[in-house]
Amino acid sequence: MEEWLEQDKNSIRAVDRLREKIRFSDEEIEKLPGICDLFPLKITPYLFGLIDGDNSDCPIRRQVVPDLRETIVRKDELDDPIGDKNTDLNNQPVPGITHRYPDRALLYATTVCGVHCRYCFRRSWIAQETAPVSDDMKPAFDYIRRTKKIQEVILSGGDPLTLADDSLETILARLFEIDHVKTIRIHTRMPVVNPYRITGKLVDLLVRFSPVWLVTQFNHPREMTPFAKERTSRLIDRGVPILNQTVLLRGINDSADILEKLNRELIQARIKPYYLHHPDKAKGTAHFRLPLERGIRIMRELRRSLPGYATPVYCLDIPSGHGKAPIQHNYMQREKDGRIVIEAPNGSRHIYSDE
Ligand SMILES: *Cc1c(COP(=O)(O)O)cnc(C)c1O
Ligand code: SF4
Question: What is the pTM of this model?
Fold first, then answer.
């Protein structure tokens, strides 16, 4: 069996196995299994190996180990927090597709993920049967084929790289033969949670259907292991570009220092920081969220300390399905007398005239 499949097969799915490394309170031992009934536990042995068992605030642990606070559901938290299935907006024209921006569509390839991230915005259907994914992807492909304004298809899920090579090949080949589809994007956490997935065969496959862009999700510098960097470099060496989206998570990476370190590591690995996502209002995830002002402040500091191309765009996915909006500090202000005040990265203010 290939190593990445072995990692998947040997993933930790029961709270008992976490106790090999993590000490839980009596209340946790009693209640965590029930929490895993709502959203199953899944951690690859590789990622489990990165957890610091002595530190209850370990940033890897907090992302994947269930937490008692997941039972607290706020009124404005939803099963579908960003309106992927919002019927009023007709965001899901056929099963398996979310089409929100005219030129690009999401195609759900699977409900399976490499690990289960506790803050996940799709946690209501990851690994569940209620997912907008069916074995029969024909309606989805027919929709893409007849909707000529779609120039990019984004494979999402679930994690598309949990599919076997031949399933992935079939999907890529079907997209590749549609003339108006010019680029394919794959959203995946596998390079972070199961880097073994980047086999020589996978690299060949993605190169064959070029241009394929890979978008991964490194959230913390501790995830940038030599192994993950070695495997992602195999793709980049062969011309498969990699972008990174980070989810801003309270108590995990919500500091300018951590994000500076992460983004520097990313550019050293030739991975381009793309988005910093404000966490979505999925059920039972309030303990991961933080005020937007805090994100804005962190971004202002990053703007000062990082090269422009190492600075991601901070964005909010507007609840109920209206799309992503960039959120940022306002560097420009027009005074009543018509003059403009511009703020420099170091905070100093300067008059500018656009007359
Ligand atoms: C995020 C998202 C995209 C991709 O948006 P980009 O800004 O191009 O990365 C496309 N479709 C849907 C439904 C999305 O949620
Ligand atoms: S990999 Fe993505 S879709 Fe899967 S559980 Fe994590 S955040 Fe959710």
Answer: 0.96
